[in-house]
Every structure is written in structure tokens, then in C-alpha cells.
Amino acid sequence: MSSKSNRKKYKSTCSYCGVGCGVEITDLGNGKLQLEGDKEHPSSKGMLCSKGMNLHYTAMDKSDRLLFPEMRFNRNMPLQRVSWDTALDRTAAIFKTFIQKYGPDSVGFYVSGQCLTEEYYVINKLIKGFIGSNNIDTNSRLCMSSAVVGYKLTLGEDSVPVCYDDIELADCFFVTGANPAWCHPIIWRRVEAHKQANPNVKIIVVDPRRTQTASQADLHLQINPGTDITLTNAIGRVMIENQWIDQSFITNNTEGFEAYQTQVFQKTLAESAEICGISIEKIELAAKYIHEAKGFISMWTMGLNQSVIGVNKNLSLIDLHLITGKIGREGNGPFSLTGQPNAMGGREVGGLANMLPAHRDLLNPAHREEVQAFWGGIKISDKAGFSATEMFEALADGRMKAIWVVCTNPLVSMPDVTLVEKALEKAKFVVVQDISNRSDTLKFADVVLPAAAWLEKEGTMTNSERRITYLPKMLDAPGEAKADTEIINLFAQKMGFTEAFNYTSLSEVYDEHCRSTKGTNIDISGLNYEILKEKRSVQWPYPADNQSSKIEPEVFEKLKNEQGTKRLFTDGRFYTYNQKAKIHAVPDENRSESTDENFPLVMTTGRIRDQWHTMTKTGKVNKLNQHIDQPYLEIHPEDALQRNIVDNQIVEVIGRRGKTQVKAKVTTDVKQGLCFMPMHFGKILGSDFGRANNLTNSLYDPRSKEPDFKFTAVEVRAYIKP
Ligand code: SF4
């Protein structure tokens, strides 16, 4: 073991959720690491949750790591170790054949919000700028795309207006469709501490379940599933009736209020309360708390986004900020919490089927020309690529032939996994690029590419508050595993795109990404690795000069001296064509699949405190498995009684697309008619016991293409072993 003085310390960022907590890791030698919270990181100030605190165990345990490229010529053969050249030569040959025979849209990449920004950037550049298809999508589609569209339609840009420091400046939190006490714990700890120091701070939680977060609320609005818009519209109505709106802000800084007013008055308060399944008084109290607050922050995640009407849910929530003018000021604003560590970075480089770098729009011809000129590649296709769900549908029906899956495990995380299984079975060629042999998706791989993990590669990530943090390389990857950017660059060379992917360092990739943002709303042209290493983290925008940016000269000087831009829209001007935010009149009908006599219950899914996604990392840590060690189904006592189900009994949950077995947890934490299953569990336990996505459906929001995970019609019955 190295002596104490020799021990090397590195600062990095937790690679789990979008809070983006800073960590400090000490290399103790002999493969041993020590980890603690980085007290200097402004997002987390030294705090870490249970997952973050145990992150180093996943880095030290290499027992499950993929070490060498592997390949097989058909799925009946076992995978066999090959060289990098052989694996990439074959992959390039097959991609070229399909592209020539069926066109560029026959191939695609399905990537992850855990990829670093540089990785996203090169994959996006390769497929859109050189292969000629827009078939790149990401598992971030499953968590944040409704919020992206919501921000764009209201504020004119996919832009989170607030920062974490606004938490301590707010006195009312409206937490909806989120359980941050479990899923964004360090943000929640800041809210808790703030409330403890200021008992007048009000917390409103909207959730059909009594979660850990809801149990700490001053007001829990336990609405019926799918009635979020009815609730927010009703709150808007109360605001207008009581003249709790900011008329001057509405007139000078927004448009669309008249249509909104007409919409929210279509239902009486009594009708809305009945639909939501809560009292009129609770709706009025929520409106009062928001009105009385000097600082009003709404926070939301998948409960709003993962819905067939996810965009509308976002719009109706942001409306509450726009009619009250509670945005663009300290302690005020709509705050979508990103699920994944770098979902924001992926959006910044345009790593989705409908986007281009720097939040440019793929369907805008001028944007396509700009990017094509910048990359120097071929003409960018004007056809949006397949989104996550569409990609697997296209594989299943033969429109797509090959898929390259990077750092994600769709066989557990996608909705309707039976369709995903069929799609991967039907696919002519599947590449899986991952770190772990615990990914269920490997079963269908024709080529396996071992990737470097967290701490084994450098790059950047952007957290929920637009904060970009640099992550240094600290360890060598095991075996022959390579950094994802290097893998893609090598493949691009094999495809013949030698010049455009001839990067000699990762900072070159990052510099190119920064240059691509010049003059846009998310301009970070003033940023590079040196600045990031010195400042540790920076919030965008961070332009190179105030000529190219949209930032006022005096604000520009200030942000260069600080760590970037804390808040957006402080001058009341938005990124829309007329600089006014758009208030939307949002209809409140739900378009999820319907319940009926065969499937009378609604199932919703979510995360548990100590697991992350499909458990390929957190599932390796004993301490984390002790919290909840197996999947379960929360069911209300009345629903259980009607079905003769008792607590802890194994039940079968049946839906229109599949079924699964799981242990029942009879609890009043869910409303009658609702049940809940965690989304993490797949075949990692040896069967598909408790795999919630056997049941979910492929319906998605037409604008965001985000799937409807939160509303699945099911029936539950006692399980009788065949
Ligand atoms: Fe990591 Fe999120 Fe926990 Fe912070 S809150 S330590 S980023 S998992």
C-alpha cells in the first residue's frame, strides 16, 4: 500500500443521478479506493446519498467486467474472444453492407444518459454527419424528453431556468410526479435542511402514492393517476379567481393568457376535485401556498414526463409560474430534475433522433446546413430518426437491420420488453458496448465491445442545474477495455471517415463541441478542459465573447469571473421569437390505455432508494441490496381483499402484453385502484420475476415520444405454481 503522502486524490462526479454530486476519490494502491463527498462542489457541498457513498465498490469490483472484444457468426454459437481489429472490421463491413443495400436508416445507435458528453458528441456526429441517418436515440428519451418539449414550447428553449442555490431562497416547493427523497436524495436533503431552519417553508407533494417525499409534505395531494393536468388547471383557476396572478408580468412578458383562462374555467372546482379524488379545500390550499410564497419552485421528474400526455403535463405546470410571474427571480422557477447523470449533456450535443448539436432543431433546414458546414460531412438527412421505442419497433418489423447499444440495458428498462426481445431476436446484427457482463441485452449480441468505466476515462457531464463538471481519468481500464470515444473513433476510421474522426486527444473533441455552440442559447464557446479543471465546474451559457452571445455585456463580465450562469431569464426576456414566454391552454383528458373489467387496476412504476436503473452496478453492492432485496407490488388493502391476497404472498400481475410474478406488499401507501412496482429488476435474478416492463406499453407522447410507463392497465391474482 502506498504511504499516506503518496496517495493520489482525484475529484470527480457521481455517475448515478442527475443531481451530479461531487466526489473525492483517493487511490490507496493495490486496487483499493476510498471515496468521500467533495465539500467544495457547489451542487452537493460534501453530501452523498447511499448510492454515491458506495460508488467506489462498483469501481473496485472488476469481477463482472467485460475484458475483451467478442464475436459470433450466428446466435447458436457462443461468443468468442477476438481482437479489436477483427470486431470492428466485421462491424464496419456489416454496417457498410446494410447501408449500401437498405440505406443508412437501416442502422442505428441506442445510447445512454450515462455516456459522457464527448461520447455522445462523436456518436451523433458519426451517424448524422457521415453515415447519413438520424437514427440515434438514448434512454434519456425515457425520462426527460417531455420536459425538453415543455421548456421549448413555453420558454423557447430547452433550458432549466433555476439552480440548486435557489432552493435556500424558496419558501414553497411543489413536488409533482417525483420522489426526490429516494431518487434525488441530495437535492432533497437541501430542501429538508431549508425547511428545518425555516418552518414556514411549505412543501406540497402531488403523488398517487404516499412516498417518502409525500410523508414529509405539509400538503400531500394524493390524486388519482393521470389527473395531474386537471389539478394544475384547477390551481390556475383558483389563482385567477382570487387575483393571485401577476397581471403586469402576464401582459409584458407572456402571451396566451386569454386562452388559458378560458380553458381552466371549463371545469368547476368541484368537478376538478372529483376527477382528482381530493377535496376542493386541498386545491385551494395549494394555490394559497403558492400565492403566499416569495420563492416558488416546482420540481418534477418521471411522474409527469413518462406519460402519453407528458408534454401537456409539463406545459400546465410551467403555466403556474408564468401566470404568477414566479420565474427568472431568485428562488423561483420550474425545475425539472434530470434522472441520469448526463442526460443534459446528451441534449447539448443533440444526441437524440430529432436534434442537432447545441439544441439545434433537425427539422430546421438552416440548422442542418450550419451543422453540415461545421462537420464537413455529407448532407444531413431531413428525416427525423427513430426514437427509442420506434427504433425497437423498426427492428421488429425489419425496417432496421442493425443496432449498436451503448451503455444501456433495454431488455429491462424499455417499456413492453417482450417487443424489445422480439426486436433484438429479429435484428440481423446487434453490437453491445458495455462495461459489465450483467447486462441482459448481451444475450442478443453478435459483437461485444468492452468499454472503460467511470474513473477509467476522462470527459464531462452536465447535471440538472446546467452545471458542467470535468471527470479525470484515474484508473486504467481492465483487460482490453477502451474508452467509448476511442471505440467510436476507431470504428469511424474503419468506415472510412478518417479525417473527421482523427482526434489526438479528448480535449479536441470537447473543443469542437464547445465551438459548435457559438452564438446559440447554450453557448459554451468560452469553455475548455483547462477552464473546467481550474474552476472545477461551470454552468452554461459560458460564451467566448459577448459579441457572439445573447448575454448583456455587464452580465457577461460577471459570469466569466464566476462559475457561469446561475439563473436564466432574469431580465424577463425569453428565448421565443418575440421574447415572451408562452402560456398554454392545456386540455386535461388522459390518453393512456384504459382499464376495463379484465384489467381494472392501474400499475405505475418507479425507482427504489438504493438501486440504479437495471442494477448492473448497484446490484453488485451488498450494502445497497440490503435496503430492498427483491421486487414487490404495492397494492391497496381493499384491492387485495377483493382478490384474497395477503401481504408477502406471491402474486401474478397480468397485463395486455405480458405478466410477471412478484411478492405482494399490501399497503395504504397506494390509492385504491392503483398498484406500484419498482422498475429495476430484470433477469439478473435468474428469471423475469418482478420485471415490471413485461407489463408496460409502447404508447408514447406524440410530441416528446416519451413512453407511458406510469399508467398500465393490469389485474392481480394469487400465483399458483404450474
Ligand atoms: Fe449520486 Fe445522485 Fe446520490 Fe448525488 S444524489 S450521490 S448524484 S446518486
From TrEMBL:
Sorted UniProt keywords: 4Fe-4S, FAD, Flavoprotein, Iron, Iron-sulfur, Metal-binding, Molybdenum, Nitrate assimilation, Oxidoreductase
Q: Which cofactor does it need?
A: [4Fe-4S] cluster; Mo-bis(molybdopterin guanine dinucleotide); FAD
Q: Would the keyword Oxidoreductase be found if you checked this record's keyword annotation? A: yes
Renumbered to this chain, the signal peptide range is none
Residues covered by the 4Fe-4S Mo/W bis-MGD-type domain: 7-63
Q: Has UniProt tagged this entry with the keyword Oxidoreductase?
A: yes
| Family as reported in the entry's similarity comment | Belongs to the prokaryotic molybdopterin-containing oxidoreductase family. NasA/NapA/NarB subfamily.
Q: What is this protein called?
A: Molybdopterin-dependent oxidoreductase
Q: Which organism is it from?
A: Arcicella rigui
Covered residues, full protein: 1 to 722 of 1181
